[in-house]
Specification:
The protein is of the alpha/beta class and about 250 residues long. It has a single domain (about 5-240), classed as Aldolase class I (TIM Barrel). The chain contains eight helices and ten strands. Strands 1, 2, 3, 4, 5, 6, 7, 8, 9 and 10 form a ten-stranded mixed β-sheet that branches. The chain starts with 19 loop residues before the first strand and ends in a 6-residue tail after the last helix.
């Protein structure tokens, strides 16, 4: 049985003695870029946290939550904020992307890590599905949120993946961009409805695909319609450049 296991992790405490559950870290030993969204092309370090509260059928990081296909004992480790801070500050790269899975499941434990990164002169992007409102300690200068609500075509019930109260919190923060995965013009119509209803801006559209050919084909399907709506468009640079290899 597939499970996202969110209730199996008690994450309410801010006690820094509790480690974060990490899927992988990359960008120090082998340099890479932020592949998506407003910082696409910027040199970046990645901290990918494990576990998610959604079970999207088109997810490309199922090794963070789908234990019907992956073994959580092999796909995750426990690391403290101090461990992760030491790793990130060993590199001169300024941008640190904290992604998942759904990193805000562990946001109470993220606070000391993010504070340490900012003190070290890093800037932080948190990539989230937008179902959990951020705690105030994360809504500070130097932190941006790449919020990616999952629409039905991505293989998720929108009753679970679109949470108005959480989206309202991200809009109010003034620190969020809203990035949607799309594969058809019909998807853009749904994105427009959500953007209007929840006052989401700026809107970024990313073509669905895990190969260069698929990204190119979907880009050509969407480009004119995205441009007509005066939205932002992003590719998936890591797919184009590194064939969607893990750790790139």
């Amino acid at each position: 049985m597939t499970t996202s296991e969110p209730t199996g992790i008690h994450l309410a405490t801010r006690d820094t003695a509790f480690p974060l559950i990490v899927a992988e870290c990359f960008g120090v030993e082998v340099p890479t870029f932020q592949g998506e969204g407003p910082s696409c092309g910027h040199p970046a370090l990645f901290i990918r946290l494990s576990r998610c509260n959604l079970t999207c059928t088109k997810c490309d990081t199922k090794y963070t939550w789908d234990w019907s296909q992956f073994d959580p004992r092999k796909e995750s480790t426990k690391q403290t904020a101090a461990d992760l801070l030491a790793w990130a500050t060993s590199s001169p790269v300024e941008l640190v992307v904290i992604t998942g899975g759904e990193p805000l499941l562990q946001q109470a434990r993220l606070v000391p890590l993010v504070q340490g990164l900012l003190t070290a002169g890093k800037r932080v992007e948190l990539e989230t599905n937008g179902t959990l409102a951020p705690v105030p300690e994360l809504m500070v200068d130097g932190v941006r949120f790449n919020v990616s609500p999952k629409i039905a075509s991505f293989g998720m019930d929108e009753a679970l993946s679109v949470v108005p109260a959480a989206l309202k919190a991200f809009v109010a923060s003034g620190q969020a961009a809203f990035k949607f995965v799309a594969s058809s013009v019909a998807d853009l119509d749904r994105i427009a409805e959500l953007a209007h209803t929840h006052r989401l801006a700026p809107v970024w559209v990313m073509p669905e695909g895990t190969t260069a050919d698929a990204i190119t084909a979907t880009t050509r399907v969407l480009a004119n319609a995205v441009a007509a709506r005066h939205w932002y468009f992003t590719t998936r640079l890591h797919v184009m450049a590194f064939a969607d290899a893990r750790g790139r």
